[in-house]
Amino acid sequence: MKSLIKIFFLAIITVAVITLLAKLNYDSVIEKPNSDNSEKITLQIATGESVDTIISNLVQAGVLKENWSKYFRMYLKLNDLSEKIQAGTYEIPKNLNIKEIAQTIQKSKGLDLWITIPEGLRKDEIAEILSEDLKSGGNTLFDKNAFLSLTNDSEYISSLGFEYTPTDLEGFLFPDKYAFSVDESTEQVLTKLIDNFKSKVGTKDPYEDIIIASMVEREGYTSEDRPIIADIIKRRYAEGWLLQIDATLLYLPKDWKHVITKADKDNDNPYNTYKSQGLPPTPICNPGLEAINATRNPKPNEYYFYIHDTNGYAHYAKTLAEHNSNIQKYLSN
Fold first, then answer.
1. Is residue 240 part of a domain?
2. Are 252 and 269 in contact (CB under 8 A)?
3. Which domain holds residue 274?
4. What CA–CA distance (Å, rounded) separates 31 from 99?
5. 183 within a domain of the structure (yes/no)
6. 277 touches 255 (CB < 8 A)
7. Among 200, 231, 248, where does a domain finish?
8. Considering just the CA atoms, what is the radius of gyration of the chain in Å?
9. Whole-prediction pTM value?
10. Tens of pLDDT along 211-256?
11. What are the residue positions of the site described as Important for catalytic activity (predicted)?
12. Alpha-carbon distance 75 to 98, whole Å?
């Protein structure tokens, strides 16, 4: 009898574990982007088309991975969405996740302009992407100059509910995928970006950390580099060193590919961290969550210097002599 009870409870535990793992896998899959490619695919959904046909067309179009079909079907069923799919023509980016695809095909009109904002762009670059993509999608209300004007409008910024009030919204335009309607105004577009920042990042990080995260975004090339570089920048700042961050020199010229010269390093402006003590007055770009989390949780180390070689690999040094040696070894022709 004891053996039967034991087998019974073991079976229950096994079923519970399998169910939990399946649930975790499902939760993970529905949040993953289908791809890194933001190319938009035109997809036609005919009136009365079956869910199976729609899923098959999504797969053939490259919008949905074939092995994710069952999860998409399950998501529609669990959320009672199958009957809400609308016939129509859709432009669907390849980098949507299952939830976003389902959201898109429920709207024959409305939230159908998907735009991806990459990490590490300045606000003027973001304004340009929004202007081009919204205009091509039929939105005639968005104005990039008005958008940029709002990013340093004190009255608008004070209405956003930050625990502190930045003078500029550079750094708070959260990089992500966004669905916009053809009739959203400039202010509504900007507010959607800010609300997403508040939702994904929160409002409790000190402004200094957002500035540092923006430098980490531009200076750190990998998830391994960023926490190390964040620690180096934070220690140099705390100990009163000149930060000497190359990326800050590129903010005012508005050119990330500009080749830095001695004249750039000698130029007297608040974004020149080779001459100006402390942090730049604002973030130098809009960082993603990885750079922000690296700044929140820097990886302790004893380095004070770093460079990236021509292949993008980071090399660290504890002393200026070691740093100069790395420059000679990895960057000299």
1. yes
2. yes
3. 207-301
4. 7
5. yes
6. no
7. 200
8. 24
9. 0.80
10. 999 999 999 999 999 999 999 999 999 999 999 999 999 999 999 9
11. 219
12. 8
